[in-house]
Amino acid sequence: MHVPVPLKGVLSVPFRLFGIRPSRMNPNTCTICELMFTKVMKARKITIDATILFADLRGYTSLSQSQSSEAVSGLLDAFYDECAHAIWERDGLLNKTIGDAVMAIFNFPIGQGDHPRQAVLAAQEIQRRWNARRLGEELGLARAELGVGIGIHCGELSFGEFGRSHRDLTAIGTVVNLASRVQSAAAAGEILVTQAVYERAQAELAGSPPQQRELKGFEGPTLYAA
User: Fold this and answer.
1) 129 vs 26 pLDDT, higher one
2) I want to staple 185 with a disulfide (CB 3.0 to 4.6 A). Which of 111, 140, 199, 213 is the partner?
3) 44-225 has which CATH code?
4) pTM value?
């Protein structure tokens, strides 16, 4: 759902007067996309087919105990920025930042017929961007000590407002839980995807052999490295 209106520069001024500006969810689209949430707000929650990506900055906890607060906060800002740009380039929704991790959703609010593939491409771009910055080396750390572990799963999940005293607009369900577990099994610099993602994004995962990993709460799902 790309709207053919200018979002930046002088040509964007008339549109901004009518409240059309870059979306907070993805600055490459405009606020018209946010109208998609009206359906969710009325129903409180909807069931959608989507892909969930979790990315976690490995080594952050130990690093925070040995580096200055300025260095640590700068590192986390850089991590968030690289994840955000990679996710937005593939029309994903950066739904949450959770300490030293991020959670993204693909196929809502912008529909994508190939959302598992888009999530894999976003994950690969996160790794490329992070490796290019070489921030760990600036802090005297090897790449293996400060890398990004990524997990991806897809399927039907619930998206909407959850909670009463504190409402949170997010996705929940087994798909989200498994994606999180897969991310926890990924080593620094590694991208792991489930069988469901592999079946829908085989072109991006050619040559990746199946492997078994023990995941808490799940019976040894088959995973693939992207």
Assistant:
1) 129
2) 213
3) 3.30.70.1230
4) 0.82
Break the chain into its structural domains and give their ranges: 1-36, 44-225
SS in 3 state form for the chain?
CCCCCCCCCHHHHHHHHCCCCECCCCCCCEHHHHHHHHHHHHHCEEEEEEEEEEEEECCHHHHHCCCCHHHHHHHHHHHHHHHHHHHHHCCCEEEEEECCEEEEEECCCCCCCCHHHHHHHHHHHHHHHHHHHCHHHHCCCCHHHCCEEEEEEEEEEEEEEECCCCCEEEEECHHHHHHHHHHHHCCCCCEEEEHHHHHHCHHHCCCCCCEECCECCECCCEEEEC
Residue pLDDT, tens place only, 131-160: 887 665 555 554 556 789 999 999 999 988
Q: Which residue has the tokens 């693909």?
A: 106
Following CA atoms 208, 210, 215, 219 in sequence, which dihedral angle do they give, to the nearest 10 degrees?
A: 150
Q: pLDDT for 209-221, tens place per residue? A: 999 988 988 988 9
Averaged over 31-53, what is the pLDDT?
Answer: 71
